[in-house]
């Protein structure tokens, strides 16, 4: 499991588990005394190496599977995902070049290059595991610094013994 310390997205993911999968899901996880990792990339490495056998907190592992890692992967329904944003700043040293890059990134060719194992902003992109539009956006008002600190304290009480 991932320690949510300072990560609003991870706090949101734990909340998602309880709201969408089962009201006591994270309590049940804590009762299993899982190994705690500092982030999802470390969890993915632990899973791909065989250090751990399962986790609900990992990016899709289609690239690792293709490289021969002994892992399986499936998206649950409903699935949680972290939205990613990008912008072209008017104050960029070369804003026109940045706009050309941004336009490429949302083109079919750009999405084909970026979306293998990730959600795509366009439909029918080979290798994409979902559509970005299907990722429910987090309510930022529910994840202010005090809410995150309160969740962290509760999480440590349940997971760190």
Briefly characterize the structure.
By secondary structure, the chain is an all-alpha fold. The protein contains 7 helices and 2 strands; from the N terminus they run ααααααββα. It is 43% helix and 2% strand.
Write the layout of secondary structure elements.
Layout: H1 8-21, H2 25-31, H3 40-49, H4 62-66, H5 95-105, H6 108-114, E1 119-120, E2 130-131, H7 145-159
Parallel strand pairs: 1-2
> How many domains, in number, for the residues?
2
Our measurement of the CA-to-CA distance between the termini, rounded to an integer number of angstroms, reads 14 Å
Structural class: mainly alpha
- Give the DSSP E fraction (strand runs of 2 or more residues): under 5%
- Main β-sheet, in a few words? 2 strands, parallel
Q: Shape from CA axes?
A: globular
Point out poorly predicted stretches: none
Helix content: 40-55%
List SSEs in N-to-C order: HHHHHHEEH
In spatial order, strands of the major sheet run 1-2
Please work out how many helical segments DSSP would assign.
7
Mean pLDDT: 90
Gyration radius, rounded? 18 Å
- The total strand number stands at 2
